[in-house]
Design brief:
This is Xylose isomerase. With about 450 residues, this protein is α/β, with parallel strands linked by helices. It has 16 helices and 12 strands. It has an 8-stranded parallel beta barrel. A two-stranded antiparallel sheet has the order 1-2. Helix 3 packs parallel to helix 5 and helix 6 packs parallel to helix 7.
Length: about 450
Amino acid sequence: MNVLTGEKEFFKDIKQIQFEGLESDNPLAFRWYNPDQIVAGKTMAEHFKFACAYWHSFNGDGGDPFGGATHIFPWDKQSDPLARAKDKMDAAFEFITKLQIPYYCFHDVDLVDFTNDVVENENRLQQIVAYAKQKQQDSGVKLLWGTANLFSNPRYMNGAATNPDFHVLAHGAAQVKAALDATIALGGENYVFWGGREGYMSLLNTNMKREQEHLAKFLHLAKDYARKNGFKGTFFIEPKPCEPSKHQYDYDAATVTGFLRQYDLLCDFKLNLEVNHATLAGHTFQHELQVAVDAGLLGSMDANRGDYQNGWDTDQFPNDINELTECMLIILEAGGFQGGGVNFDAKIRRNSTDLADLVHAHVGGMDLFARALVTADRILTNSDYQKIRKNRYSSFDDGEGASFEKGGHTLETLRDFAAANGEPEVRSGQQEFLENLINRYI
């Protein structure tokens, strides 16, 4: 009998995944991720706060726009929605504990199927939350963040908080209230807003200014409700440029930062950045991280990757060590996440039909992050990486450059300096050297 799932055990052939080190050839063991290993003053577990995405891992059925489900889960056999939800939760906590993942994340409708009746949905959610609370107590697994799905139901075809119909906005508010209640009841450390349809398809029928004002008001109301009911965590906005909307109001990190600043939300909100969303916005993930860090808003991240041949959100598991090492350099220099962690918002491929595929995907992702962390720490500690970048801006560290940064120049005095000192010396940015440096440490 499994102590967490009663008589049922869904991942029967999977034992708890252990750290076995670099000499191991066991595909169901960690080679790099040792949760207790100290790197840059913190354990790996503290650096990452890994989380399992409830929706992709236990709800994603492999369907796509051209075909139906290929992942037929054994926990989806019950006809009663609450019984099915409990089986799914049994499977989820069995999986999470076998991989020693300390956190999970969910949308409300991931936990239990919703109807179109607000009161019935609240009742269902409350019942499954009570079940989840016991699971958390038994396992020690915690909730990194909760959220409400305000994009799948047809009523949200024109958005939720930005919908031109007040009735629809009110339904969105009801869902957010219930999701906040669930997050608070489960000790959730954060709460996320992803505006999957908070945007427009055509400006011909859109009052963009009014819609963004409604979104800001909605976020203030949600924040005030949560604070009033004891929520002390951080609220995250998750940027995404498009898909399904033509243009979403949370386009990228810079857009969201401007929105939060304009509508007086900076004190309570930070960013939950997703790799694949950065790709769709035409940015590298490193760029999005740096924008968030520079604004003091790096809250959390959704770990995945896109496919350069596909123009949509493919949500594949991360596997690029170079890219992730560059990301970990930024995260380490920033001091880590503010409240959040690393949520694997990623799904196994349509033709990956074995339950073991889900295990391999998470093991690989966690190992990749651990390897990137170790590599980035070695680069920062043992190489000239930081020195080279600092030296590139050394002309601003003293003399007239330092005076400029402190506001000691006018346009006229800058002109006089240029005239008196002639043509500047050409200085290399040493890009290839730095790229080689990262490869050398990998």
